[in-house]
Automatic annotation (TrEMBL):
Organism: Coemansia guatemalensis
Xref: SUPFAM superfamilies: NAD(P)-binding Rossmann-fold domains
Protein name as it appears in the record: NmrA-like domain-containing protein
Residue ranges of coiled coil: none
Family: Belongs to the NmrA-type oxidoreductase family.
InterPro entries per record: NAD(P)-bd_dom_sf, NmrA-like, NmrA-like_oxidored
Record-annotated NmrA-like domain positions: 2-277
Organism lineage: Eukaryota, Fungi, Fungi incertae sedis, Zoopagomycota, Kickxellomycotina
Pfam family, one: NmrA
Keywords, alphabetical: NADP
Record-level GO cellular component terms: nucleus
Length: 310
């Protein structure tokens, strides 16, 4: 496939993974798009990955995107519902704020003559739940972008990845037990026995992006789920103890503790319908990729654990 690849969200987990893997692979000319290429995170990555071109682009500004995608063959795109400005638009009543950003990238890519777009999408929880959970907006927005890309198949080739639940969330939602000050507790509004397709985002995502770039005909129009397997929440706690020797347990907290209605709905929907709708055929497909997805125990061994996230 194409060799000049642009990466939207290169300073984030998914885009950073694509940057890391494609840079290591060699043979690709890489352009990283950032709202602020002068940020500390962008400068740090620019130093780590010499010869990567950094370009300013704002997902709310199609003209900047059009310029940033000039001469590019393919673009990897991830949109972020939880950015401050997007959340502010949603709070003001604009439920399509994330979709608008994804559409802007797609339209700009088409205008710039980009051949292919790889988009990090998600299922519609509204569809998976038959309308019961219609308010999980960061799922709905991404799914709507996916549908929009598919509708432009005559103008740009669309490829889609669906990431499982981030293993990184267990770092974010961790604390030292108030009961014994020794045990690490992982706290989320999920049943301890709910099986989730987990992904080590920063290590796994880029390998799937690379696979798509190397197998364009095979992957065209397909959704490729990114995860090494299904695990219960309490299994992540057990893997932590095995990897670090530190006592740990999973603690389910109320759905309402998620803070936002959209997140409360998400956790309820995942408990009831799962991520990927419970599909497991992707596990066989993933074996064909020349990468080993990170296991929970490997994830904790690689973390150099120094305490709960602040």
């Amino acid at each position: 496939m194409s060799k000049f690849i642009a990466i939207v969200g290169a300073t984030g987990l998914q885009g950073g993974s694509a940057l890391k893997v494609l840079y290591a692979a060699g043979g690709y000319k890489l352009r990283a798009l950032s709202r602020n290429p002068e940020s500390d995170s962008a400068k740090s990555l620019a130093a780590e990955y010499p010869n990567v071109e950094w370009v300013q682009a704002d997902l709310n500004d199609t003209s900047s995107l059009r310029k940033a995608l000039t001469n590019v063959d393919a673009v990897f795109v991830v949109t972020d519902f939880f950015q401050k400005d997007t959340l502010e638009k949603v709070a003001a009543g604009d439920k399509d704020a994330e979709f608008a950003q994804g559409k802007n990238v797609v339209d700009a890519a088409i205008d710039a003559g980009v051949n292919s777009v790889i988009y990090s999408s998600l299922d519609s929880m509204k569809q998976l739940s038959d309308g019961k959970y219609a308010g999980v907006l960061h799922f709905e927005g991404k799914h709507k972008v996916e549908e929009y890309i598919s509708s432009k198949a005559d103008k740009i080739k669309g490829y889609f990845i669906h990431l499982g639940s981030y293993m990184e969330n267990y770092v974010r939602f961790s604390r030292i037990s108030p009961e014994d000050s020794q045990t690490v507790e992982f706290t989320m509004p999920l049943k301890p026995t709910t099986k989730l397709p987990l992904v080590d985002t920063i290590n796994d995502t880029g390998h799937v992006v690379k696979y798509i770039l190397e197998h364009p005909e095979e992957c065209l129009g397909k959704v490729i789920e990114v995860s090494g397997g299904y695990y219960e929440a309490q299994e992540m706690a057990k893997a932590f103890t095995k990897a670090t020797g530190k006592p740990a347990r999973y603690v389910q907290i109320p759905y309402e503790a998620a803070g936002m209605d959209e997140l409360s709905q998400m956790f309820k929907a995942i408990d009831e319908f799962g991520i990927f709708g419970g599909r497991s055929d992707f596990l066989e497909y993933n074996k064909e990729m020349d990468c080993a997805f990170v296991t929970p125990e490997e994830f904790w061994k690689n973390r150099n654990w120094d305490g709960p996230s602040k």
